[in-house]
Amino acid sequence: MKVNNIVILIGFLSILSSCYQGQTADLIIHNATIYTCDENFSIHDAMAIKDGKILQVGPEREIMNGYDCGEIIDLAKAPVYPGFHDGHCHFKGYALTLNEVDLNGSKSFEEVVKRVEDFESNNEFEWIKGRGWDHTLWEGEEFPTNDTFNLLFPDKPMAIRRVDGHAALVNQKALDIAGYTAETIIEGGYIEVVDGKCTGLLLDNAYDSLAIHIPQVEDDKMLKLIQDAEQDLFEVGLTSINDAGLESKDREDFIKWYSDGSLKIKDYAMLFPVKENLDFAKQEKDYHNNNLHIRSFKVIADGALGSRGACLIDPYADQEHHHGFLLRNLDEFKEIAEAAKAIGYQVNSHCIGDSANRTILEVYEEVIGTESDHRWKIEHAQVLAAEDFDYFENYNIIPSIQPTHCTSDMRWAEDRLGSERVRLAYAYNDLLEKAGRVVLGTDFPIERTSPLETFYAAVSRMDRKGKPEGGFQFENALSREAALRGMTIWPAYSNFENAQKGSLEAGKDADFVILTKDIMLIPYADILNTFIDKTYLDGELVYSSE
Ligand SMILES: [Zn+2]
Predict the structure, then answer these.
(1) Separation of 368 CA from ligand 1 center, angstroms?
(2) Are 441 and 86 within 8 A, CB to CB?
(3) Separation of CA 88 and ligand 1 centre (Å)
(4) At 175, which CATH number?
(5) Which of 110, 120, 299, 355 is least surrounded, with the fewest CB atoms within 10 Å of its CB?
(6) Spacing, Cα 86 to ligand 1 middle (Å)
(7) How remote is the CA of residue 150 from the centroid of ligand 1, in Å?
(8) Across the strands, what pairs with 299?
(9) pLDDT by residue (tens digit) across 284-311?
């Protein structure tokens, strides 16, 4: 090369670099450990952000020399991950729990009664509502009856739901309001009757039909609750959620709240396939409104395993001749799936039992065939027959799973399923191998909101006390990389949102979290002692521990 040319080249390079010098960023974080969750799972030192988007992620020098910037944060090597994404939860359901008696973790029925009494004496609600009891934590593990509550509250209706939301205990006053007697039959539900008398225990549709009589929270109170809930979610590091089932009134409310800027967490909402929602979907199709995204239907195929409402091919191991039940007939499932396909919506179906899973997988097969990229999902995919795992691979179906369900249910899962069938339950790694991706979530308020608990349960298969040692069916634990992808880029992919978010790459939304410890490296037990230091949504600080 001639000297002249070298001079020209140097000149050209210096123009290029001065160009970069001129570029401004709003925020630079550096001296960090940034898990990008990109294709190669690369880790970088620094990231530049402008107008809520990532300008560049890269080596320390390159970023620090590349931009003029107002705010520069030295993270002293602290770990940064894409904002966490809960792939299956109930946003409004969680917000409502802020208004109800919390029965989670009650160690006996007496404790439930005590908590309800304390709550009642401090509140003036027309109905007493609660959630979270779990009879499998009590001695004897028997379902409760309402006798005590009939005596305590003869004139005030009361409904307390089991932790899985598929069973409830209500008192006589509530049964009277709903008009339930020992003779009442509700399709897709069960009213327990012993010695010709209702015990107050209701399953699935039997509770849903009664709940119609519970007064709704007024609109302005609801917004306050939901904003409090949103802040709780930022605090645990969530920037995105998949909201698993909106009624049409909820859809209208959320649209209003996102339109006027009352909410900003990224919400991919699934609509229950009721007429008003179907009409909305036909008209609006893939619907975006600020950070609200609607393009799917939520279908509920069966109940839950704990309350034996999950639909199994062979009977329950701990209840003779009992298979659980499907909540709709096959033609209804097909009709919804056809309608969704015509609109270009996804179908996300709650399937717990192997029979429910198979029924819906067959419907998917029939309706979408091998045409790829519908990204239809099975929510929970909890118990599967061995031969049914292939559906996920053959039809590009995505399992949306909840690792804390596994570690909550493992105490009694074998009782329900027996020692062979339980090996095919909560089979997350087997699902990953077939589907190529899994979406992780909590199903809050059924489980707690924390994505770190999800991560811990997914990789360790242990409960919070570190039991069982070595993990429950550990062969189905996920690697840390898979778990992190399952909380970031894979749920984004499953929503058709992966071009905008889910990994920390140039051009994508600046949604990220800074943690106190690196969950990719520390021992399992330390994961639960890790905290969110800061949460950023679209480049804006929405939570700080300071
Ligand atoms: Zn759910």
Answers:
(1) 24
(2) yes
(3) 6
(4) 3.10.310.70
(5) 110
(6) 11
(7) 30
(8) 349
(9) 999 999 999 999 999 999 999 998 999 9
